[in-house]
Design a protein that fits this description.
With 237 residues, this protein is of the alpha+beta class. Helices cover 35% and strands 18% of the residues. Strands 2, 3, 4, 6, 7, 8 and 9 form a seven-stranded mixed sheet that branches. Helix 5 packs parallel to helix 6.
Length: 237
């Protein structure tokens, strides 16, 4: 499995941000070989980490993921599930439910698994997935990669794709690949969910161009893996 590194980080933190460069260097995705979580979701799943109080990227990432899943043509709950993992053990169940309700349509919620792990369980999950994040205690916010994990039904990581600018087709290919065991964890652009400008709601044009290229690479790699699997299946028949 390809080892993931954050190939680009977006450092546009506000002047009062408390995190040092050394702390920010710990933020990224470094996927271990054979990465998996002990989850039995019953279907391939898209998993994201979220701070339920985050108004920078987390809410938009969940909303866009929900919209794109609806456009894949796959059946929610049967062909895929959506797992949302809370990053702040101090968040209440009500806060988590409100976050989900704000960002997802009602018809999808039966297919959503909401996880609110404690400190030790969260540390185990992020370590297993190579997901590096840091808490800015002064601001009460997290610096973390905006990434989506695609898991097979047994919890094995099949792919990691960016939280933004990936098309519904990319999600569909990744989920079908997870079902048939043909996923490939592609090196992808992972944005830093920290210091995002909520006023403009934008990144620079250069960042969006790199995002587009990274997503195209992801689609091509996953599509190639899926095509190879289908060819092997036909030969066996």
């Amino acid at each position: 499995m390809i080892r993931l590194l954050a190939i680009l980080m977006l450092f546009c933190a506000p002047a009062h941000a408390a995190l040092t460069q050394a702390e920010l260097d710990r933020v990224g995705v470094n996927l271990p070989k054979g990465a998996a979580l002990p989850l039995d979701l019953g279907a391939p799943a898209v998993l994201i980490f979220a701070d339920f109080d985050c108004s920078h990227i987390c809410d938009a990432a969940l909303a866009q993921t929900a919209d794109q899943l609806a456009e894949t043509g796959l059946a929610a709950g049967q062909d895929y599930r959506l797992a949302v993992v809370g990053m702040d053990p101090g968040d209440s169940a009500a806060t988590a439910q409100q976050f989900i309700a704000r960002q997802t349509p009602a018809h999808l919620r039966a297919a959503i698994t909401l996880l609110q792990p404690g400190d030790e369980e969260l540390a185990g999950m992020t370590r297993a997935l190579g997901y590096g994040y840091v808490l800015d205690s002064e601001l009460g916010s997290f610096a973390h990669p905006a990434a989506r994990y695609v898991l097979a039904a047994d919890g094995t990581v099949s792919a990691v794709i960016p939280a933004f600018d990936a098309s519904p087709d990319a999600l569909r290919i990744a989920l079908v690949g997870a079902r048939f065991g043909t996923g490939a964890a592609a090196t992808s652009l992972i944005l830093l969910c920290y210091g995002f400008d909520p006023v403009t709601g934008r990144y620079s044009l250069a960042i969006w161009r790199v995002l587009t290229v990274a997503c195209l690479v992801t689609v091509l790699m996953l599509g190639g893996a899926l095509a190879t699997a289908f060819r092997r299946e036909r030969r066996q028949q």
